[in-house]
Structures are given as C-alpha cells and as structure tokens.
Amino acid sequence: MNAYLTPEEREGLKKEIFSSLHCALPGIVESYDPEKQTVSVRIPEREGSTPFPLLTDVPVFMPVPFEVTPREMALVVFSDLETESLLAPAGEESPRSLRRHSLSDGFAFVGWRICPNL
What we know:
- It contains two helices and five strands, in the order αββββαβ.
- By secondary structure, it is an alpha+beta fold.
- The chain has a single domain, classed as CATH 2.40.50.230.
- A hairpin with a 4-residue loop joins β1 and β2.
- The longest helix is centred in the N-terminal third of the chain and has 13 residues, at 7-19.
C-alpha cells in the first residue's frame, strides 16, 4: 500500500481542512446586549459555501464606551482553544473540550466602518 498522497489528494485534503478552520470572519451585528457586553453576529454568505449559523452571545473584545447598533461591522476572531472555561466562574482554568477554532469560541471586535454592499 502506498502511504503517500497524490498531488490531487493533498489538494483535496487541504481544501477539506481549510473549509472547517475558522480564524477570523467579518460579520454584521444583529443585536447587542450592553449588560453582558455580547453581540449576535451574522456572517455574510459566500457564493458556493455553506451558510454560517447566527453567532450568538459573542463577547465584545473590550467593553465599549458607545452603543453598538445593528448593521455595524464586526470582526469575529476564533480562539485556538475553547473559551467557555475563561468565561466561567473563577476557579475553572483548564479547557472543557479539545475543540479548536470553533464558531462557539469567537470574540467580536466592533466599531468598523460598514461597507455599503453587505
């Protein structure tokens, strides 16, 4: 049995891996919770790609001194490790799971100027 991948197989594997890897995605704020300092963000659909779910309860990177309104631009950055343990009550330090770059582990940077075509 040949243990090496053909160039076509390597390219297919690379596309499969990168299609499920999330590092940073631009999105549109749908709602803002000033008490929790979180947003719900819609990631615009790209032609030929699977639609993203609405990202909810995304922590805003830093408490903001201004109101975040719907249709504002946000850049959602996805953590290398799960973030639930960071946001949990004090005392819990180790990750709860081994997930990486999950849509559940994003932080929103808000205050960008929106593009009129989004």
